[in-house]
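Students often ask why inverse folding is considered easier than folding. One informal answer: many sequences map to the same fold, so there is more than one right answer. In these notes we will look at a single instance of the problem. The structure comes first.
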């Protein structure tokens, strides 16, 4: 058993990079406990562990006496002589006796084995915790081995990583056996061992992907100043170059978009807008709301509020689908943004629309009613406004507003 124990610990030294002296100390403690169990707490003993040779030696020290009162601490001179007193020891001197494991009995040996296994598990837990604590914020690559209702379990170097639902990219499919990349977001200590939380939805994951795909960012020539992200939908990344000869946005996008496309594919086709950072909040807000064209920007730096004015046909670009564009712009700039729609004069619309072509949008009966009242085109209806339309028999103010809004939306879609 001596050799088996030391070999198992030596293997841990090689695989886990554990200090030899620490492991040797654990073995000494365990076998010291064994001696105390058999010979009492006052027993004098010595445990010598040689990790290199794979050897454990246990020695019990007892005082030589004429008459023994405590056999755990004393041994009679007669017994010493009977064993062959080659060193010619006398009463009052210490008698050092080597102990074999077999002399402790099966029960104590099993206790020692259980204690060793427990200490090994504790060491392994601590090693795993320390290893992944150092990896926090870094990307790891693992294999999915279980997909559960609310989380995914990932195998990384034979350790279990947890990818919770809230750290997953929405609508991304995870299958057993697939390889997945994620950042180590958090390492928690628990009585059952460390829990390692990984994430694909965190902003840091996007930052690390930029560092991998774009050498200028990894080298520090280009710096990521801000990131705003709605995983699986869209992200905005503000970058700045410390070298005036290097276009920060161009370097991130790459020739024909090859660099940014690699990141987009990794993120399940999440759209990524890369913009140039600016210390000027007005310029930064304008860039964050691109490609929309703004007519005016008013900001309150103390309250971190902003009001932008734009033509009605630009509002949909500012807001974006389901409001994602303006939400990301607010996250990126730190300003709350309000939008004021400025109606475009009807005469500025380049292409008028025949009402007969809007039967599907407005309704055939409404179109016929408008045409019968000498309205033939969309611009004519917009010019008339709600007040004129509600004078038509069969149209009230509510219906008139719906007609006007529907026609305006048609012009905005065409733009």
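Output (designed amino acids):
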């Amino acid at each position: 058993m001596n050799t088996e124990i030391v070999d198992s610990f030596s293997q841990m030294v090689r695989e886990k990079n554990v200090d030899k002296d620490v492991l040797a100390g654990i073995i000494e403690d365990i076998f010291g406990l064994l001696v105390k169990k058999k010979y009492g707490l006052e027993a004098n003993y010595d445990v010598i562990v040689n990790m290199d040779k794979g050897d454990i030696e246990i020695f019990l020290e007892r005082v030589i006496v004429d008459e023994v009162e405590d056999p755990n601490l004393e041994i009679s001179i007669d017994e010493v002589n009977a064993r062959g007193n080659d060193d010619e020891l006398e009463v009052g001197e210490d008698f050092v006796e080597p102990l074999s494991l077999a002399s402790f009995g099966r029960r104590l040996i099993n206790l020692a084995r259980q204690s060793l296994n427990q200490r090994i598990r504790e060491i392994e837990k601590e090693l795993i915790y320390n290893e992944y604590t150092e990896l926090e914020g870094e990307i790891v690559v693992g294999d999915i081995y279980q997909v559960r209702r609310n989380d995914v379990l990932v195998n990384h170097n034979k350790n279990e990583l947890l990818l919770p639902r809230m750290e997953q990219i929405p609508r991304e499919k995870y299958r057993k056996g697939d390889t997945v990349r994620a950042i180590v977001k958090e390492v928690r200590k628990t009585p059952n061992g460390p829990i390692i939380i990984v994430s694909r939805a965190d902003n840091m994951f996007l930052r690390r992907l930029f560092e991998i795909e774009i050498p200028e960012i990894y080298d520090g020539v280009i710096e990521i100043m801000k990131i705003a992200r709605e995983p699986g939908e869209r992200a905005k990344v503000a970058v700045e170059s410390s070298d005036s000869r290097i276009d920060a946005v161009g370097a991130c996008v790459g020739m024909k978009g090859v660099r940014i496309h690699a990141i987009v594919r990794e993120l399940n086709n999440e759209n990524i807008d890369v913009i140039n950072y600016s210390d000027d909040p007005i310029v930064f807000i304008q860039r964050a709301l691109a490609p929309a064209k703004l007519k005016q920007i008013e900001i309150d730096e103390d309250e971190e509020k902003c009001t932008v004015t734009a033509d009605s046909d630009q509002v949909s670009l500012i807001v974006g689908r389901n409001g994602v564009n303006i939400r990301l712009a607010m996250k990126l700039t730190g300003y709350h943004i309000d939008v004021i729609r400025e109606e475009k004069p009807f005469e500025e619309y380049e292409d008028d629309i025949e009402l007969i072509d809007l039967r599907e949008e407005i309704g055939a009966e409404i179109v016929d009613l408008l045409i019968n009242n000498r309205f033939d085109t969309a611009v004519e209806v917009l010019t008339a406004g709600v007040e004129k339309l509600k004078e038509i028999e069969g149209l009230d103010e509510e219906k008139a507003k719906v007609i006007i809004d529907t026609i305006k939306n048609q012009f905005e879609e065409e733009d």
